[in-house]
Amino acid sequence: MRSHLSRALRGVLTTAAVAGVFAATTTVPAEAASGYGRCQWGELCVFSAPLGQGQMLVVKKGMLTLGSWDNRIRSFTNHTDWGVCFNSLPNLDPKGEATHWYAGSQSFDESWMPQLDGAVSSLDVGPDADYFCAGESRYATYSWEDGPKARPAGLPASAAFGDVNSDGFADLLSRNKYGQLWSSHTYDSGGRDRLAGAGWNAMNKLTRHGDQNGDGKEDLFARDTSGVLWFYPGRGDGSFGVRARVGGGWNTMRDLVAAGDLSGDGKGDLLASDGAGTLWTYPGNGKGAFGARKKVGAGWKAMNELVGSGDMNSDQRADLVARDTAGRLWFYPGNGKGAFGARKLIGTGGWNTLTELAGLGDVTGDGRPDLIAHAPSQTGLQVYPGTGAANGGLKSAKTFAGVAKATFVF
């Protein structure tokens, strides 16, 4: 039968007894070769044996895999200002056994999670660690009450984009700080959140807007840090197939966005603004690539965010929403020929406080495309419902999803 005395208490009693024997003759030196005392203030240290014994590893940052330390951690001490999350599966997988601690020392076999003793395969440390442990913050999570609503049947393509698993609900794609790409689905849809892949921090631009290759599934474009643009065909289940190279040289573009069918030929197009402020339309060829580009106009250097918003004014043409450097929001009605009509002001200021603006199509279930926004200081996503009015205006925002501050959502 296991003693009711904890190992930590037994260690204290033993140390006290030994100290009493030698108190009259010598001073016991501070323990440095083993034990929790080896870990410096401001560090997170893990050990291969209980009570800080055995080998020690100083953890500098979160680790999706532990390499030679996989399934070896038996105790730890946390001298950082943050929480630490331990998970029994690699990649901080939500299906793993996981829990988090803040400051202090602990042997796993005498903790409330003894099943993690010698069974940790990934960990996180930092301000979001407790959220990662709970399965939240690893990806965007829709709220129970105000998540996406089912869309009306038979929506045209100009309003039906943003659904990565073809269930009739808008879905989120989010890249977290580890470069994992997740697809998130509202509770009412029956879909499940899933990891779509890792290594996405190699991409400095991610954009999507419906079907680009004619198979009826939502696809994705990504530009890597060397300027190569890649096409990722959607599988219709929240994940993506083998990528295809579109071409190089795209790092000359300040911004690029998949914007739906701008030219009226039934194929999805791409908009890109270059360093000189010229906006270009790249007509889609229906196979995930593009034909010869066409100049839309100059002066777009004043814009720091482009959004392929869909048909915001109910004329069955894809439109554009753009934010200028003064923080104003503009609506550009598509003319169906790859360009735009006279713009209209739909946001008078303050929009530059948002890190991301995105179009997911109809989020609210009324058949009209909406606008999504994320502020860096917030852990919630806002939806601005579209009105469908001729001026492309928006209704007041409401929170509909939670997301970590450092996560990119589109």
From TrEMBL:
InterPro entries membership: FG-GAP (IPR013517), Integrin_alpha_N (IPR028994)
The keyword Repressor appears for this protein: no
Origin superkingdom: Bacteria
Signal peptide (UniProt feature, chain positions): 1-23
Keyword list, A-Z: Signal
SUPFAM superfamilies, per database record: Integrin alpha N-terminal domain
A Pfam family recorded for this sequence: Inhibitor_I36
Name of the protein in question: FG-GAP-like repeat-containing protein
Organism, as annotated: Streptomyces poriferorum
Top-level taxonomy: Bacteria, Bacillati, Actinomycetota, Actinomycetes, Kitasatosporales
